[in-house]
Each structure stands twice: as structure tokens, then as C-alpha cells.
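Hi R.,

As promised, here are both runs. First protein below:
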Amino acid sequence: MNVEVRRPTIAIVGGGFSGAAVAYHLARLGGPIKVIIYEPRALLGAGLAYGASDPNHRTNVPAAKMSLIPGDEGHFLRWINETGAISDDPDVIGGDGFAYPRRSVFGRYMNEQVRPFVESGAVEHVREPVTAIEKQGNRWTVRSTNTSAHADFVIIATTHPEPRIPSPLLSALEGDPRLIADATLPDALASVQNNDRLLIVGSGLTMADIVATLDAQGHYGKITAISRRGLRSKTHAKSPQEPFGDFSDPLPKSASELLRRTRETIRRAAAQGIPWQAVIDAVRAQAQRFWPALPVAEQRRIVRHLRPYWDVHRFRIAPQPEAIIQKRVNAGVLQFVAASIESLEASTSELEVVLRISKSHRRLARTVDRIILATGPNHGGILSTQPFLKSLSQDGFIHADSLGLGIACDAQGRTIDAQGRPDQSLWIAGPLARAAVGELMGLPQISEFAARVANNVFEAAREYA
């Protein structure tokens, strides 16, 4: 008598880059598994970052450094050359000579890699949001809008949470269309008039996207961009550079040691004509080795004191939006200020904002027509953003990590429950795992971690079967 062996089912919640990459690697591994991915969008792999159609939003790193497949850095660029995906984009080449495609191009690339597995049935795409995840015995029940499925393993690969609205704005402008709280939504900036005076809260890459879109719309009004330190994203090196420096032998034991060694290595690199970008790339590449070895107190110090400086050096701006920003700064219509909002008075015609200058008792008044948030995702509040995460937290299956960056898990991606135990059946993929890994916001690291989670879950499924 033939006995049919039940295939372990792996459910992936979220089909942006992280979730689609995990599904891709699982499907390539093959074997007696069933993969279900939950993503309302039609294109798997595009997600929030690469699903937008705004042609003014470009990848922030050259195409030659973006890839779904770890160890094959040129995979995306070869796909571009084979498909002619950037042939209709006259501005794709930046001032440094590298290609910075529209982000939607990378979304199409991702979808084309995953789609054959969907068409073959190796991956099932459920175009519905997940509403609940419940543990029943040794298995999970995943409920979406109109369906439910049993799974042996669940991988959480949800999108970034929305930005947190600063309290002065929330109390004065809740429900007011003059506050644009999420500029990533389609046509979020369409109502901005060309002569509107704007306050943008945030001065990183999201701000750069906003300014690029507004510039293309013909906006010429004055813009004030604020952040606590007034830092702007740095630019790329003018030529390709190999990572420079060793930050894993010996491992740094404190935040101050890491900072000291980074500064010393930058000075050493400069003496050899090597730009600072190569040193930051070395820190990024080696973070997965030294970060887990740091005491939690030192990790907290890094997140609290060094992270803003890390972000502007690590997440660099593409030449095209940088040129737009510099043009506006030179024209005197874009100003960066290290400040926070102290108070706000809203009349029917305009918004009177008082800014508190950082590390100062000075105040700066601005009269604006609209305020746009560009503060980045509120990762610390992730568990309250979706009902299934909230219920998993209430049931003790997951909890926030100790650094306020996402969900607690180990370096392999296994969630850590309320009792501190790793769960072999519930996993995290993507930036929400970065407290355990260190550097997990850049695409190369997300890609590597997605492959690691896929391999780990696949091995666990083989043992299960």
C-alpha cells in the first residue's frame, strides 16, 4: 500500500522584496514542500519600495550592485541588458557613469524571477492581506480576507510600518489634508501647488524622493527640510571601490571602539587615496560578524547615538536626485535645518510653525502651506500596525526586540517568544530582524538574509517531513 507523505506547508506573509526572495530561494531548493505567499499586490517582489510607478524615484545604488542572488552581484544588470529595461530612460546614467534605474524596473525584475515558480505551482500567490495567524496544536492557521490555510512554518516578511506622526502635528492637523503623513502613497503629492511653501519633516532619502517628485511636477515654492541633526544623505564614490578595513579581527567590544576604529580606518584609507565609502562598505559587510558579539548595552548606544550618522553615510543618494536637491539649495529655495517642531498654529489659510533649533535655545518661525512627513518607518511600533502581529504578540509568540528596531529573533531568523525561546516554526525575514543581525536595511544584506532564512526553513521542513 502506498502511503502519501504530506508536504510541509510554508506560509510567507508579505510579498515585497524580502518575502519574494525567500519564496524564490525555497522554490529553487525544490523538495517536498508547499509554499504560499500572501501579497495583495499583483507583482511579487515589488512591494512598497519597488512597486511605485513614479519615474522620478530611482534606486539609490547602481544597478551593478543590486541582485536577488547573493554571490551574483551582476544578475540584475545582466537582466537589464537582456531585456532593454532602461532603453526608454535617457537620464538613467548618473554623473558618476553608473546606471540608477527607476525603482519600478527592479520591481519588474523581481517579479520576473518569481513568476515562473508561481506559474508552475511551486509557489501559490494569495492576493489578499493576512488578517490573523493562530497556533493550533503544532501547526499554524493563516487567515486572509477570504481564505484560510494551515501551515507548518510561517515566515513574517511584512512591509515597513508607517512613519510616526509627531505629537504637535497630530494634535493640530489630524485629518487635515495639509498634512501629508505618508508621501509613499500613490499621488500623495498631487495636491501640492507649484508655489506652496513646504515644511518637510525628515532630511534623508525619503525627503529626496519627495523633492524629486515635486521638481518634476513644476513646484518652485520654498522648502524647509528639518531633522534633529540636519543631516543629508551622502553621495556615492566617483568610481567602484572594494571594501577597505577589518572590523572583525579583533571584534570591537564597544560603541566607542567601533567608532574609533572606523575613524582611524577612514584616515588610513584617505592617505592611500581611498574614499570613505569603501570603509563604510567594509563595516556594513562585516556587521553580521561583530554585531551579535556586542553587549546589548553597546548595541543600544550605537542605535541611540551613532545610527543617524551611520544612516546618512550608509544609505547614499543617487546622483540624479542629488543634482535636483543641490540645484534647489543653490537657488535658495531649499534649506536644511537641524531642528524639531515646537508648536504649530493652523488657520484656514496657512500654518504657523515654530521650530526649536537643535542644541540651542533659539527658535525659528516658518509660515507654510503644507507639511510633509519624511521621517522613515516607525519600526519600534511594528507590533501595533497589523492585527495579526498584535495578536501574535498578545499570545506571547513574538515581542519587540530590545533595541526598538523590529521583532525579536535570533541571527538565523527564528522568532524569540515571550519566554526567550526560539521558535522553529515562526520566522522573520527582512529589516524587522536587524536587531539580531546588525546591518539589514541595504538590499545586498536583505538578499543574503532571505537566502539564509530560506535555507534554514527548508532544512527544518525536511526534518519535519
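And here is the second one, sequence first, then its C-alpha cells:
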Amino acid sequence: MKINAFIDHTLLKPTTTERQIIDLCNEAKKYDFFSVCVNSCYVPLAKQILSKTAVKVVSVIGFPLGATATEAKVFEAKNAVNEGADEIDMVINMGFLRSKNFLAVFKDISDVKSAIGKIPLKVILEISELSKNEIVKACEICVDAKVDFIKTSTGFSKSGATLTAVKIIKKTIKDQAKIKASGGIRDLETALKYIDAGADRIGTSSGVAMMTGKTTAAK
């Protein structure tokens, strides 16, 4: 198994500089990661650097809270695609979900999916904020909205991915969507456990450490 093919090489801190994005993209080229995952303002820069490579550009949308208006998410997603994003990772509206306003959750997701067409859409659940039943319901809504991936976490909440949550997601969605495990995955051994549990992609800022056999401190 080539772990690099599973990795979305990620840098989403609000203080991220242009120089750091350039370094991120160069690392992705060096280690042949699947993609870089960046905030939408950096899509043009990332696309420019990676234009002659197979490395894809992933843009987060409505990040990290998911509480922006659906229309704002739609605009941000379409704009990111127009500027070169190959995939979109949007944050689910957790407030709507916890209010049991499932129609609004579905519309939020399906409107973004409709806006970006065949571009793969991942929906970030933020599992640390949800009960098991809420995770299951969110997954069912995502499948109904025909999303391509369900992603565990933003990495900006109280905790990130868990193997338990990945197993719950896998059991719920079966083969109707893929899974991206993200948040707190910092070494190769942990990444492989998530892949074993059903993850198809790993979102991490520690991809280089995984490739070089080093460990990284919590971020």
C-alpha cells in the first residue's frame, strides 16, 4: 500500500501565509500526495504551482463552522471550482442537524452538490460535536444528497477522527459514499488503522512525517 496516494496534504490555519502554501504544494509534488487541502483564498496559488502535476487541489467551504448561509457556501464552492479546485470539502450545518431540521441540512448539501456538478464533494460532519444517532442521521442525509465522501472532522474542534466514528460511518453508508478520516492523524501507524477501518482518504498536516518516518507534535 502506498500511503501517499491516500493523503490530502493539509494546511488550513487562518494565519497560513503564501510562502507556507508554496511549501505545502512543493511537498505534495515531492511525495506525490493525492492532493493539497487549502482554504478557498489559496486555490489559485495552489493550482498555479500544481498545474503540471497529478496532485489535486481541494478547497474547504464554510470552514470551519459550517454555519454560513447555504447561498454563501454555494458561491464559495462555485468560485473555488472556477479558480481550479478539483474537490470540495464543505462543513455540514451542525446547528440545523441538532435542531432536527433535516430538510435544511439536506438542502444545504444538495445545493452545493448541484452547483459543482461532477466535482467530488466531501461533507465534514465534525464528529466530536455529534452523538452517534446524529452521526448516523447526517450520513443518511449525505447519501440522499449523493455526496462523494463523508469526512470526520475539521481538525478545529475539541477532537478529531476516531476509529469508532469511522466504523459507524462505514456501517451506515456501506458503499454508497467514501470516507475521509481527518483530524489528529499524525503518524503512519494511525493512518493505516483508519484505512483498515474503512477510510479511503486521510486528511493530515503530517504527511511528510509519515513519509519520512518521523512523528509530529499536536497541531
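A quick note on the second one: The CA atoms of residues 50 and 167 lie 34 Å apart. Let me know what you think.

Best,
J.
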